[in-house]
Write a structure and sequence with these properties.
Elements (H helix, E strand, L loop, with lengths): L2 H16 L2 H9 L4 H16 L2 H24 L8
Length: 83
């Protein structure tokens, strides 16, 4: 298997883990939104594939949302964590 194939396998395994109920519950307890984590994984995966446009889209979406949720939580507005 090529290095790129091995990297893709790691991302597939990470995505599968993020989709399990136990991991999702543990992450939620730590204030981590699984959907945003999946978006970040897709962004990094796209970057490793050389698809920088897709990486920017996915990573930008996730980081913008995390920043917005953090700002809301700091101001006491609803819709704060988990991020």
């Amino acid at each position: 298997m090529s290095g790129a194939g091995e990297i893709d396998d790691v991302f597939a395994e990470l995505e599968a883990l993020l989709k399990t109920a136990d991991v999702g519950a543990e992450l939620a307890e730590r204030g981590i939104n699984v959907s945003l984590a999946m978006t970040l994984v897709e962004g990094v995966r796209a970057y490793f594939r050389g698809d920088k446009q897709q990486a920017i889209l996915e990573l930008g979406t996730a980081t913008d949302e995390i920043a917005a949720r953090l700002a809301r939580s700091r101001s006491g507005e609803p819709g704060g964590p988990p991020s």
